[in-house]
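To close the section, here is one more complete example, presented without commentary so you can practise reading it yourself. The ligand is coenzyme A.
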Amino acid sequence: MSAEVKARAGLEDIVATTSRICFLDGDRGVLAYCGYDIHDLASRATFEETCFLLWHGRLPTRAELGDLQSQLASARGLPESVLRLMKMLPPSDGMDALRTLASALGHYDPDARDHSPAASYRKAVRLTGQIASLVATWGRMQQGGGPIAPDPAMGHAASFLYMLTGTRPQPAAVRAMDVALTLHADHELNASTFAARVAAATLTDIHSAIVAGIGTLKGPLHGGANADVMKMLIEIGQDAPAERIDAFIKGKFARKEKISGFGHRVYRTEDPRATHLREMSKQLGREAGNLRWFEMSERIEALVRAEKKLYPNVDFYSASMYCTMGIAIDLYTPIFAVSRISGWTAHVLEQFANNRLIRPRAEYTGPVYPQSWVPVEGR
Ligand SMILES: CC(C)(COP(=O)(O)OP(=O)(O)OC[C@H]1O[C@@H](n2cnc3c(N)ncnc32)[C@H](O)[C@@H]1OP(=O)(O)O)[C@@H](O)C(=O)NCCC(=O)NCCS
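Output:
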């Protein structure tokens, strides 16, 4: 593929829409939601404030934040039929389960047939509450546990961890999860958000658009990379000496294989989200008395930067961070969705508000037109 064809195939640097939600400057490593720098949001905002910001384009007042927290809390209970469906699913990948279950939620939504802006907003809030419960409950069931009823007094991150583990989470774990959710909430026209917007632009319902987003996030070039990073760290081995780590990564270079968690279509410098995730991975590792995954990740980062000039992306240090928190690998990408549902729904609402069908063209490279028809007996 020529560089030109490659760039076109990936719609590289193509501006496909206008949006008031996310500002991204890949050369300077800037990410901002509605003008607020991700570094400020990571250190000061809660995920609920971030949701409000993405959905309304401004920060909430205290009363508005309280209202949203109550709305999210009351959305956390899952329909009984969806819980039954969850139990009926065969052992499956977390993203496959989420795709099916998020789709099922659409059948039971009280606003299912109402496509008005007010109903779409209610569905955005409801989906954000429900997807966290889906992922937590599914994760718990995979470990043999039963569903935990949500505690309405808890914030979003705390409730997610509580419903996943069945125990009241420690403040440090809650804060780490809250920051991770804020960091993953939106990222302009990333592949899954674009997929959700393309779906929404046909004026389909919000659940269908979100299912398109979930299916797209699953891929290893997108959200699936965080699970692949952890699988790679485990394959190298927690007790591997430095030489084995180096040999493993250099082997991948030699075979021209990609290293999950590195590289980005937009950033030409450090992904600002990785800065926070690296720090959290280190802090949580230190608190847990096990810095091994973090140290291995740091060594891999140094090698990849030196040899390939590639920076870690959002999926690299989130892997060792979630592992240190005791979260199963199969939940890493679903947790990405627990956060990104806020960005997906913000973009879908924006698309609905100012819609035009998204329908690009392809340059035809098939057999010359016209071909002459040969009856089946003569082929
Ligand atoms: C994110 C990603 C899909 C962006 O892809 P892209 O913009 O299409 O870039 P390309 O895949 O064309 O990569 C450009 C070059 O960098 C190399 N490269 C990119 N990411 C790499 C990685 N993670 N490991 C090794 N080499 C990589 C490519 O091999 C290519 O080299 P070449 O020009 O010699 O062929 C890509 O970096 C990748 O596959 N990363 C690993 C998966 C991942 O972490 N995804 C999560 C993204 S947030």
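Once you have examined the tokens, check your reading against these statements. Strands lie at 22-25, 30-33, 36-37. The first strand starts at residue 22 and ends at 25.
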